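Project standup — Tuesday

K.O.: blocked on the structure for the chain from last sprint. Re-posting the sequence here as requested.
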Amino acid sequence: MTSIKVPPLGESIVEATVSRWLKNEGDPVAPGDTLVELETDKITVEVPSITGGVLTKRLVKEGDVVKLDQLLAEIDEKAAPARAGASKAAASPAAQPSAAPAAQPAAGPAARAAAAPQSAPAAAPREGGGDGQRLSPAAQRTAAERGTDVAAVRGTGRGGVISKADVLEAPAGTPARQSLAPTPAPAPRPAATGERETREKMTTRRKRIAENLLQSHVSTARLTTFNEIDMTSVESVRARVKEKIEKEHGVRLSFMPFFVKATCMALRQYPVVNAQVDGDSIVYHHYVNMGIAVASDAGLVVPTIKDADRKGMLDVARDIADVARRGRDGKLTMDDLTGGTFTITNGGVFGSLVSTPILNYPQVGILGLHKIQERPVAVNGKVEIRPMMYVALSYDHRIIDGQQAVLFLVRIKELMEDPALLAID
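H.V.: unblocked you, prediction finished:
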């Protein structure tokens, strides 16, 4: 009998929520098959089987909070797969969430045949992608959603199993194999007569985000200062070089690398904005691990660009594109999400004109970028239409005085309005 336990979840993470079981009691499993998905406040962890056999017992339920090294399941390497009708109650529809009927593995061929007259045609076996391929349930679901032909996907999991990450790396939009026909999306549940509200339990990640934001609000003396930047010059520079850079270096140059570079230079001049409070001490960081806020379906994540102050703008652009892509695909590692010293968040990509960002505790400063909007401004005594952006600096007033905060933001404004200064470092 092999015990399956909660694996290491990452730095400082000691618990997770059982998000979804992919195998029922009595199901056969192969080495590398995903048994269950665990959700932490930062990432989703797929727990694979470390041996072949039959899943004889599930020791926790979906929604349970589990600790590191806690028992999740037991696998009998010598047991034969359960026959139709002999599987336990866990294989019944009531044991699975109604919102994801296609994720229920059948107990066996006979069970699938018996159920056929009463339901839609059963999906292909989870372990099979055709031609001897094996893929995890999460990979199968993702392939169906993206229309990815798994015949062209190389499995990097244990024993060559195709994982969700492998499917996400493959091009989307190719005709899906017949055995991986997309699972019909569940029809919207009609509201009951008179029903005016519904209740949904927070995910572990959403609860942790809420806790962290509340801790930031309670533990810091937050204040925000604002300024506006004339983006004319930096827009001109970017327009001149972006096609050449993309052609020669394969990097799409956005405005974010300019802001990262300007912020690093301003932090060098005002190091307290890059510091941290530790009890009655101030810890000054002589490096900049720049956090870049990334929106994903699972919630906001803030991966960090390590040693951003020691990198050129093209390297920063590559790193930003990489962490943003992996953040949206749910493939960030714990190292990506820890160690930040300062954060930049860009609400402008969603149309935000102005906002007051919340500190990413225990950091003491966060820069908020916003929508670039043409506005009439006074230039040398004349009214001109210029592309303007409001910027906001939220800071911890416990260690950063108003003067330092204002001058820090003014320095970023100066650097962005005269991009040639970014080269003088």
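K.O.: great, moving the ticket to review. The two ends are 62 Å apart (CA to CA). Confidence is low (pLDDT under 50) at residues 83-127, 174-181.
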